[in-house]
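ok so I'm stuck.
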Amino acid sequence: MFKRAAALLCVSASALCASAQPAHAQQTLNFTLGYFAVRGEDARDADDILRSDRNFLTFDVHDFNSASVGGEWLVALGNYFEGGAGISFSRRTVESFYTQYSRPGGGTVDQDLRLRLVPLAFTIRAVPTGQESPIQPYIGGGLAVIPWRYTESGDFIDFSRGNEIFRDTFVGSGTATGGLALAGIRYAGSSWSTGFEVRYQAAKADLPTSEFASTRNPNPTIDLGGWTYQGTVGIRFGR
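replied:
not stuck anymore, here's the structure
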């Protein structure tokens, strides 16, 4: 999965470089560090696994908020537009336990819930002040291609067998696509840039029913959307 994602990113970056006009061949290699905030419980659909798990497990959906790191290649497309191809990474493990059930001798029945996202972003943005201005606000959007993995691991209760406690790991993974919107501002020098950016991605994936379906949720999904707030530092070429 990651080899396919890396190959897709390389092909897209090459296409961006080839499409840059010679008169405005500014290119930037951006590095990002930020904070990814998942969509809140009230914004998730009824089949979302985190929302349905909250009916019997104790944890907070916002515990899945996490640090995000990444990189992006930007290529000027004329003076007022640019294209980008980038990749980022976030992962968070959240502790949970059954709210209304405990072990026969006392103590909680615990699991670890883990969500990992590796979004690839393909964007077009407008730079109203132009590529030559030192202060550059921008706004844009595009496509997010998100390799993801969700895991529940630990102790579980089989209610059909007299509340028997067993240990197991359930895994779902795949690649989802969705829309992406962004806005930011940066200072652009002759050889470097720095700035701040806000992104929103919207995507949802189906979880394998063999692993996660239950009488409470026969068609489980996982919402991969959320907000990313990040600082950017870039190395600029071609000026």
